[in-house]
């Protein structure tokens, strides 16, 4: 019996020793893991030979502790050499001589409050604004066969996607400059835009472009975008001086008169809203400050064309935007340059394929917008162009392109309403993109669901459309497509699947060019989700079936 007790004792002792050793090893591994995932500030301290000056800026501006806390940030990190050059360009000898408020703004310009890898960059505006409020633009450059990413056209990324505990770091070789000029001031500062500057002043639009940013009751800003023309562009059209431009366009000999042709010529180049190139190409038409006049935008491979259209079978060539010289950020907007002179063009009805998930607030979520497998929910306060009755949230969902529940649809994303019915969400209203005045057929494409609402009345600008929509109806893939169309249905996606259906809701006469309202009012109960894919406005004279939609965009067949 004694021997047995001794054996038990030794076994227990060995187990205790084993646990202690195992615990010790585990703690050591945890410690090593913690050391490897330092936050941004600690990373800078560990690499002071390269980044000590930016660390000094963080200390002076009181942001060092901020970047050492939990969060998800992206830092564009200037090297010591880059900051030395910045100090010299500022006319100072040391950082301490610089204004602390300017340094605080400088720090905020280099930080995004989201993790953004270079794979999320497009050739244009980064979707998320910096903490300073201004946007950054990226593009590719090639020097002696070596490709690099350039930020704000000047700062080259020399090391990218460094993962730290609270975000991502991209090392840049030049400090990002803060825009301090208004649109008017920036245009006037450029000698090559002197004719355009004088036209702005003579028409009175200079003062309009020189205003600080304001926000209305819906938090919509007064940002503007302008398409300017250089002296060389004017000269190529025969206008070597402002006077020659006035002689050609000022029909009332009073450019300050809003009805004068020169005033309208300038107003036609001013667009409400902050629209970088990446924003321009998301819509085929954009409002201008010229009443009832819009600018058409078309992307042809890498070229952005203004006012290219085909009318009566004849192609009217567009004017190319100078992409290399565009996306100039100012305090109250963005400037683009154009390669040729252009005039106000009469616009004819043009199809609008409205993806209701393509909202400005959703697009800014770079890690969610059109990223397979991602989703996000939104309340009414989150979306300025969407409204509804009820306190529930709506969701934006993205599936695997070509698969999953709704991956066959347009860009594989949908707006999901958990229950479209009274007591949950009803009278769901979207503000459309710009629609050019004319007569259109309205189609709604959706992913069918067996317990979705069966009777939904749709209104365009508060006018009820002639047909209701039943979101439980699946598509008919066996019926000839033209027979289906005559019955007010079509399969909207390619490759075709009966999961997606499209319903013709009626014909409307859009009496004014601009943005409009479309509202969904459920008249029945819904036991599950409603998935809306695309809302189409097709001119009555165009083909109503083609092009179809795919996870990659439009498909002609």
Q: Could you give a short description of this structure?
A:
This protein has 557 residues and is α+β, with helices and mostly antiparallel strands.
Written description of the protein model:
With 557 residues, this protein is α+β, with helices and mostly antiparallel strands. Helix content is 23%, strand content 28%. Strands 7, 8, 9, 10, 11, 14, 15 and 16 form an 8-stranded mixed β-sheet that branches. Strands 17, 18, 20, 21, 23, 26, 27 and 29 form an 8-stranded antiparallel β-sheet that branches. A hairpin with a 2-residue loop joins strand 15 and strand 16.
Distance between the termini: 89 Å
Q: Which structural class best describes the helix and strand composition?
A: alpha+beta
| Global outline | globular
Average pLDDT for all residues: 90
Count of helix runs:
14
Can you tell me the residue ranges where pLDDT is under 50 for at least 5 consecutive residues? 1-35
Rg from C-alpha positions?
Answer: 29 Å
Number of strands: 31
Helix content: 10-25%
Beta-strand residue fraction: 25-35%
How many strands, which pairing sense, and closed or not: the largest β-sheet?
8 strands, mixed
List the helices and strands and how they pair.
Elements lengths: L1 H35 L3 H7 L1 H13 L12 E6 L1 H10 L10 H10 L1 E2 L25 E6 L2 E6 L3 E10 L2 E6 L10 H6 L5 H10 L1 H4 L15 E5 L2 H6 L5 H8 L11 H7 L2 E3 L4 H4 L4 E3 L6 E7 L2 E4 L2 E3 L2 E3 L2 E4 L5 E3 L2 E6 L13 E3 L5 H4 L11 E4 L7 E4 L4 E5 L14 E5 L8 E6 L6 E10 L8 E5 L2 E2 L16 H6 L2 E2 L9 E11 L6 E6 L7 E10 L8 E3 L2 E3 L2
Parallel strand pairs: 1-6, 7-16
Antiparallel strand pairs: 1-2, 3-4, 4-5, 5-6, 7-8, 9-10, 10-11, 11-14, 12-13, 14-16, 15-16, 17-29, 18-20, 19-22, 20-21, 21-29, 22-28, 23-27, 23-29, 24-25, 24-28, 26-27, 30-31
Helix pairs in contact: 2-3, 3-4
């Amino acid at each position: 019996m004694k021997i047995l007790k001794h054996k038990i004792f030794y076994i227990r002792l060995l187990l205790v020793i084993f646990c202690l050793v195992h615990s010790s090893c585990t703690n050591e591994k945890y410690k090593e893991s913690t050391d490897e995932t330092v936050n941004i500030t600690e990373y800078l301290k560990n690499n002071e030979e390269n980044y000590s000056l930016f660390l000094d800026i963080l200390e002076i501006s009181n942001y060092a502790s901020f970047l050492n806390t939990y969060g998800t940030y992206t830092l564009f990190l200037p090297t010591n050499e880059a900051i030395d050059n910045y100090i010299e360009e500022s006319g100072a000898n040391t950082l301490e001589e610089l204004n602390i408020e300017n340094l605080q703004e400088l720090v905020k310009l280099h930080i995004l409050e989201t993790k953004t890898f270079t794979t999320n960059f497009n050739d244009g505006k980064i979707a998320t604004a910096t903490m300073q409020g201004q946007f950054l633009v990226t593009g590719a450059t090639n020097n002696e066969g070596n490709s690099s990413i350039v930020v704000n056209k000047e700062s080259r990324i020399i090391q990218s996607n460094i993962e730290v505990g609270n975000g991502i770091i991209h090392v840049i070789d030049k400090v990002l400059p803060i825009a301090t000029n208004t649109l008017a001031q920036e245009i006037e500062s450029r000698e090559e835009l002197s004719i355009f500057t004088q036209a702005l002043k003579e028409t009175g639009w200079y003062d309009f472009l020189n205003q600080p940013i304001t926000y209305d009751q819906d938090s919509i800003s007064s940002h503007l975008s302008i398409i300017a023309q250089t002296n060389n562009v004017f000269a190529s059209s025969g206008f070597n001086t402002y006077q020659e431009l006035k002689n050609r366009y000022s029909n009332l000999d009073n450019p300050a008169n809003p009805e004068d042709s020169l005033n309208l010529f300038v107003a036609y180049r001013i667009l409400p809203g902050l629209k970088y190139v990446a924003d321009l190409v998301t819509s085929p038409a954009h409002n201008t400050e010229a009443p009832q006049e819009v600018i058409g935008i078309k992307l042809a491979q890498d070229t952005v064309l203004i006012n290219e259209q085909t009318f009566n079978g004849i192609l009217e060539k567009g004017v190319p935007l100078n992409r290399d010289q565009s996306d100039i950020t100012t305090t109250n907007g963005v400037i683009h340059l154009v390669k040729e002179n252009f005039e106000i063009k009469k616009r004819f009805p043009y199809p609008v394929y409205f993806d209701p998930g393509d909202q400005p607030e959703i697009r800014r979520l770079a890690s969610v917008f059109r990223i397979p497998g991602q989703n996000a929910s939104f309340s009414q306060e989150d979306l300025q162009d969407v409204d509804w009755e009820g306190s529930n949230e709506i969701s934006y969902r993205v599936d695997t392109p070509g698969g999953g529940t709704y991956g066959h649809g347009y860009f594989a994303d949908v707006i999901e309403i958990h229950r479209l019915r009274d007591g949950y969400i009803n009278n769901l209203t979207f503000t459309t993109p710009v629609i050019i005045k004319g007569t259109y057929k309205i189609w709604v494409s959706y992913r069918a669901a067996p317990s979705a609402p069966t009777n939904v009345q749709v209104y365009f600008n508060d006018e009820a459309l002639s047909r209701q929509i039943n979101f439980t109806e699946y598509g008919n893939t066996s019926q000839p497509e033209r027979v289906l169309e005559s019955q007010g249905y079509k399969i909207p996606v390619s490759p075709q699947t009966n999961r997606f259906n499209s319903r013709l809701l009626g014909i409307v006469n859009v009496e004014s060019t601009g943005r409009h309202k479309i509202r969904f009012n459920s008249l029945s109960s819904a036991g599950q989700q409603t998935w809306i894919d695309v809302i189409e406005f097709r001119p009555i004279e165009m083909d109503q079936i083609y092009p179809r939609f795919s996870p990659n965009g439009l498909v002609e067949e």
